[in-house]
Amino acid sequence: MPTLSPLSSQAPVHPGTPWMEALLEAFAAPSKISESARALTGLPGRREEAWRFTDLSLLTQIPPRSLDPAPAHQPALPAPAAHTWRLPLDVWPEGGPKEWPTGIEPLTGPDLSSHLGRVLGETGMERHWINQLNHGLAHEVIALRIRPGVSTCLEVVSDTAQRSGVQPHRLLLVVEEGASLELLQVHRASGPSLTSIGIEIHLEKQARLHHALVAQGAPSSVLLAATAVSQAPGSHYSQTSVSWGWGLSRQEPVILQGAGEATTQLRGLHWVRDGQIADTHSRVCFAGPEGKLNQVHKVIAEEAGRSVFNGCIQVPRLGQRTDASQLSRSLLLSDRARIDTKPELEIVADDVRCTHGATISRLQDDEMFYLQSRGIAAPQASRLLLRSFCQEVLADLPAAAGVWDPLASLLEEAIQP
Q1: What pLDDT, in 10s, does the model give residues 270-324?
Q2: Helices and strands counted in the chain (H then E)
Q3: Residues 6 or more apart in contact with residue 390 via CB below 8 angstroms
Q4: Which end of the chain is less enclosed by CB atoms within 10 A, N or C?
Q5: What is the Cα–Cα distance from 305 to 369, expressed in whole angstroms?
Q6: How far apart (Å, rounded) are the C-alpha atoms in residues 155 and 138?
Q7: Could you state, in order of their start, the residue ranges of all structural domains in the chain?
Q8: Cβ atoms 348, 318 nearer than 8 A
């Protein structure tokens, strides 16, 4: 299978960063630090293109240690939705759960060794900084095989609450031929913490994965999420990502359609307010013919919030008859907010249909006037328009996400003083 060239975000790091050195020492004795972690003596440099808009100063304000233990009376999570099996990362039992839903089983031994890292190699993500960070800090890998016949939604949850420190995770999914899965990934934080997760996903022929991420943070918290996906012919991968509240959120989905004839759908919605940064770098490569992509990335930026979107579509010569569309739509609600958007097409094949576009606008005066002329006050009118803007992405979340009520939380952010 073809492999992607390394990402530019695998840049040299500034050597000798005290915060990173302290973090590595806290997670493992120097003699036991993995080879991938030894390269992480610093943070990515702002001189490198992929990181030049990502202010990592907030990261260094988080205590460089493992996440504080959960208090005895930590607020309870909402009950899972029907037909949902919850996997709480914060209280991962030694050796993993004793029982798994029908069709989901852990990968172990030679089976695990043969799959772990393969997708990262194919997508060029094995030396990516976020993945290196997770490899160096996470002591366990949650590796699962998905067989045909799964009837439950797999809900993976981490909630750092008001605790401080660093919580790394690694997840590997192998979705077998003809299998189908709904995966709901939920991350919440309200204190000075770093939630970092690296996910590897391999979809075999005719496999389907509906992958959703709901992430609610706080101004003192950071989310780093890197997702590497390899798709076989006939497979379908959809990702719907919704995040808000984080001081810094950086998400990097990279998808490889290794032999073509696969379908990818990406939906993103990010809300940033005063001083917050939402940074998304996506890349989809069509290394075979007849591939399809539909991508919509949405952002709402208010006060002094900042959003960065860099979406790359790669179509080498083997990617004939590719049909790909990418659209970035942003709402700028303040003169102090900033949005940097950069959709890209890299096309070598000569028989393709690829489109991209980007729009940045404010709430439309004519729409506000229409609603107000029908007796709706200005605050309620703007709230309705924001709700409509969000709903296009939120509608693609699985039903299991309803217990987290992302729309209500998003709109509450909008009306905070």
Answers
A1: 999 989 999 999 999 999 999 999 999 999 999 999 999 999 999 999 999 999 9
A2: 8, 18
A3: 269, 298, 300, 407, 410, 411
A4: C
A5: 26
A6: 20
A7: 18-67+84-89+100-365
A8: no
